[in-house]
Amino acid sequence: MTSKFKIAGWVAVGALAGGLTTLQFQATARNAAPQLPLEELQQLAAVFGMVKTDYVEQVDEKKLISDAIGGMVAGLDPHSQYFDKTTFKEFREGTTGKFVGVGIEIGMDDGLVKIVSPIEGSPAFRAGLKSGDLITKIDETFVKGLTMDQAVKRMRGEPSTKVLLTIFRKSENRSFPVSITREEIRVQSVRTKLVEPGYAWVRVSQFQDRTVEDFVAKVTKLYAEDPKLKGLVLDLRNDPGGLLEGAVAISSAFLPKDVVVVTTNGQLPESKQKFLARPEDYSRRLSSDPLSRLPAGLKTVPLVVLVNEGSASASEIVSGALQDHKRATVMGAQTFGKGSVQTVRQLTADTALKITTARYYTPSGRSIQAKGIVPDLMVDETPDGNLFGALRMREADLEKHIASGQGAEVKDAAREKAREEAIKKLEEAAAKKDEKPKPLPEFGSEEDFQLQQALNRLKGKPVLVSKTMTERQPEDAKAAE
């Protein structure tokens, strides 16, 4: 296999993505200090001293300590992270949906930056960058060997400054330079449209600070356009997650008051929580209930939720809650499987620790960790199949991911084989000039096959379900084979 995803990530340059986060900026002191391993700490001090005195050139002491903390946290799981001054600032900017950069969601593919999607209206979008493009150089720096964070930092900068990206487009088998002027990116996390009389489409691309307010405003506008909606599609495809309160709020918009949306469980007492469909659980940082302005019809309108392999974390909470309460039909592909909660604990004025503190569970008690939400109806991305779905990384593919807590875990050999076959087909098609891989249609467009199947479901028409997709085996079942 000539190409293989090494790292999964749905990371807008500088923006929060790929997580379920509670913004609890709190002191780290505990009533009972843990007993420290003295011998290991002495070894750490000895290594620190050797590096200071013996290394070929002088090193920054503060950087050594920062790197040591970062390494310790990075060894826990893929989602825990130490924030230094720069990354903490970027994290805070990301939760607001504003940052300065080129405007792309990225992952890593065989050591190169892979563009998952250009953010609509961004400089990268206007420059014509496409999903699947690989970034091989950032200015004069080769990407090979850089971490994702290092690549992100090089693409960020001050407004109105330029960055030169060298792009390799597999479908055209060519490399070319693109000069992009950085600007402040305002991510629109909610988009809506009236697809046709009586039927609406609502897309949530991330769960940010303003997602709930934007959702309320745009859905209210939809009902003003058509007060007698007969069906609604909630599109959570490629939604990487975000803030926990946002997920509880969007779920509560469709559910009866006071039903369970999600529960969390971890080592600390405060991590054992139950979140209900009520204002005190989704508007803790607001003075009023933002959902009170929503049309009453939203509680009963027939609902389909679209998900895919890129739907993670907060979007899995929403789809899982609506599925468990039988409020919606979930359609698409099995989701990413990120069922853990990260809490941000501030260390100093400029640094913080994002650490995994709990697993979350759907109302029926299902752990989503390393498995995901299984749709009620599996539907391919296109009428011709689901070729690109096998290429997407999931939580279970990540190194050091935590287990579900509900069964032993083994590697999914069938999924690995499907990924290799999909990559081979894409490479063979790319080699034939007259058979370039057809890009997926834009979500919400007339060519959006899954959206059309969701509308068919709402209208009571037949749905073209997938003939090839099957549920990934439960972990305990695979372990028993």
Automatic annotation (TrEMBL):
Keyword match Hydrolase: yes
Chain positions covered by the region annotation Disordered: 427-447, 462-481
Gene Ontology terms: biological process: proteolysis; signal transduction
InterPro entries attached to this UniProt entry: ClpP/crotonase-like_dom_sf, CtpA/B_N, PDZ, PDZ_sf, Peptidase_S41A, Tail-specific_protease
Xref: SMART domains: PDZ, TSPc
Comp. bias (Basic and acidic residues): 427-439, 469-481
UniProt keyword annotations, A-Z: Hydrolase, Protease, Serine protease
Residue stretches making up the PDZ domain: 88-170
Gene3D superfamilies recorded: 2-enoyl-CoA Hydratase, Chain A, domain 1, 2.30.42.10, 3.30.750.44
Domain of life: Bacteria
PROSITE patterns found in the cross-reference section: PDZ
SUPFAM superfamilies with a match to the protein in the record: ClpP/crotonase, PDZ domain-like
Keyword hit for Cell division: no
MF term (GO), any: serine-type peptidase activity
GO cellular component, one term: outer membrane-bounded periplasmic space
NCBIfam families found in the cross-reference section: prc
Cross-referenced PANTHER family: CARBOXY-TERMINAL PROCESSING PROTEASE CTPA, TAIL-SPECIFIC PROTEASE
Family, per entry: Belongs to the peptidase S41A family.
Name this polypeptide is given: S41 family peptidase
Protein's organism: Aquabacterium soli
Lineage of the species this protein comes from: Bacteria, Pseudomonadati, Pseudomonadota, Betaproteobacteria, Burkholderiales
